[in-house]
Amino acid sequence: MKLEGKKALITGGNSGIGFATARLFIHEGAEVAITGRDQKTLDAAVAELGPKAAAYRADVTDSNARTDLFSKIGQRFGSLDIVFANAGIGGATPVGSTDEAVFENIIRVNLTSVFFTVQAALPLLNDGSSIILNGSVIGSLGNPGRSAYAASKAGVRGMARSLAYELSPRNIRVNVVAPGATRTPIWRRGSTSSEKADELTAQWAAAIPLGRLGEPDDIAKAVLFLASDDSSYIQSVELFVDGGIVGSPIGGAAFR
Ligand SMILES: NC(=O)c1ccc[n+]([C@@H]2O[C@H](COP(=O)([O-])OP(=O)(O)OC[C@H]3O[C@@H](n4cnc5c(N)ncnc54)[C@H](OP(=O)(O)O)[C@@H]3O)[C@@H](O)[C@H]2O)c1
Q: What's the CA-to-centroid distance between 15 and ligand 1, angstroms?
């Protein structure tokens, strides 16, 4: 087992990539704290994950909730070895018709809150810990109508590099996992209709060299690698888990 005796926090662990990662971490011997806003999916997640999981309702943008969260994690876990700052949202911000509040909310959830989650975790983090931030291929590729999301994920990459400088003296590693299009509930949240989501995922599949969307487990396996000692000399990288779309952007079936 790769994470025997380790204690991990996964924000947004009640859905999609975060939930798949919590399941894999527990399978590999870790105890895992998961967070989210939706009590129903938190309860369902912890029921499925079993006694090595603890769920806490906490909005990543709320500093009081954060203080309360880390106090509870301290009481239950004592310390942490792994933080996967995964919680995030999508959202359209087309140039020409976007309200400032919508733009700023995406930056606040996907970027600012990642920094303050790491900052709040520091007193509990053991030396030699691993921090993984969830980025996205959109931080490199861009995407029409997604300026705020793209900026937030490019920001995560830049932030990881600064954090790695600051935390290397404690042998704490900070890396980014950058998923490509991955089959999770994020595609169907907000105002996106089911038909539109199906259309978008089909377009992505045709553009991805390996010809399919990622599954949450594809990303979880990469996060496990970055969390475990298997990556003990890997610091400050952005690991794309994307079927090749960043490395070979015209490699998909749509271009053959
Ligand atoms: N799926 C993809 O194609 C893809 C591609 C690249 C990157 N990513 C990134 O992967 C991460 C996980 O997304 P996913 O695809 O697994 O989608 P998801 O199933 O929608 O999960 C998003 C998670 O974030 C949590 N969350 C959102 N806002 C929050 C807030 N303010 N406070 C606390 N928790 C919050 C949600 O919890 P609640 O529901 O309880 O609010 C949920 O657990 C995100 O950072 C996303 O940008 C996804």
A: 7
Report pLDDT digits (tens) over 55-103. 999 999 999 999 999 999 999 999 999 999 999 999 999 999 999 999 9
Tell whether ligand 1 has an atom less than 6 A from the beta carbon of residue 34: no
CA of 256 to the centre of ligand 1 (A): 33
Q: How far is CA 119 from CA 1, 56, 94, in A?
A: 29, 18, 32
Q: What is the pLDDT of residues 195-219, one digit of tens each?
A: 888 898 899 999 999 999 999 999 9
Is residue 233 part of the annotated active site? The answer reads no
Contact between residue 219 and residue 182 where contact means Cβ atoms under 8 Å apart: yes
Question: Model's pTM, two decimal places?
Answer: 0.98
Give bridge partners of residue 175 from the DSSP assignment: 132
In order of their start, the domains of the chain are 7-242 (3.40.50.720)
* Token pair recorded at residue 94: 């087309």
Q: Which of 10, 15, 93, 106 to mutate to test the pocket of ligand 1 (most atoms within 8 A of CB)?
A: 15
Q: What count of other Cβ atoms lies within 10 Å of the Cβ of residue 195?
A: 8
Rounded to whole angstroms, the Cα distance separating 9 from 18 reads: 10
Q: Is 26 in the pocket of ligand 1 (CB under 6 A)?
A: no
